[in-house]
Structures are given as structure tokens and as C-alpha cells.
Fold Coenzyme F420-reducing hydrogenase delta subunit.
Amino acid sequence: MNAAPFSGKILILATESCAYPGADAVGQAHMNYPPNTYIIKVKAPVMFPESFYLKCFDKGIAGILIMSCGVECPYEGAYEALAKRIDRVYQLMKERGLDIRRLRLTSICTVCTRAFLNEVQQMNDLVRELGPPGREQTMANPSEKGLKAVTA
């Protein structure tokens, strides 16, 4: 009996001026993407503090895609500030033993349907591979589960 593959929730923060219209174009074209994906339309993802991402993982969100306008952001300096914030989140994730690939910052334009679908599918594949958030910690330290670590 094979267990069903893990299909954890994927949260997408999509900017209202670029990525959200791109996601809408995917829907209008009747293109499919995994049903474990949840999209939130946001003005600018830079408004979310580092703690937001960590709390999402704590609550079971398995992957987060931040789909922004990139350097084309209508808010001056917002993308650069967001990139710095995400770098800080990566450090916090490492400290918690979370795989940083669970959080991805990408640029999606209003007509980038293929890019949107590709990003979602890549994150879905990664989430299936990694399993629930926090699993990395138990896999990295087998002695916590009563298993002996193999040393060379």
C-alpha cells in the first residue's frame, strides 16, 4: 500500500500590479495548477515582516512564493528592500533548520502565464520532496528520533 505524496499548502503573495494579473490570466486561459495553492493579492510584499514568513511555516504552510514585479515595482526601492528582507528571513530559516528553498522570491509579469505555472509546479514538487515544514530538523538530526547517525 503506497502512501499518497505529501501535498502541503503553498502560499503565493502576488503583487496587484503584476503577478496577480498574471495569475488571473492563467485562470482566464483555463490553465491548471495544483489545488494546494493559495493566492493573496498584495500591494507590495515588502510590507510583510520577517516574522510573517516564519509564522506561516509554524502554522503548516509548506512553501511560500513571493511573486512580485521585480525591479519594475511601482514603489521606488520596494523590491530592493524586499530582497534584503528575504535574505534576513533565509538566515532565520537556517537558524530554525528550515530549508530555505521553501521561500522563493520571483518576478512575474501580467502576461507571464508559463512562468507562473512553472514557479507553482517547481514549488509543488519541492514541497512533495521536503514534506511538512520542520521535517528537515528531524532528518538532519536522526539521534533525536532514537536513530544512530552514521559516521564515516
The domain at 9-140 is CATH 3.40.50 (Rossmann fold). Confidence is low (pLDDT under 50) at residues 141-152. The chain has five helices and four strands. The first helix runs from residue 19 to 28.
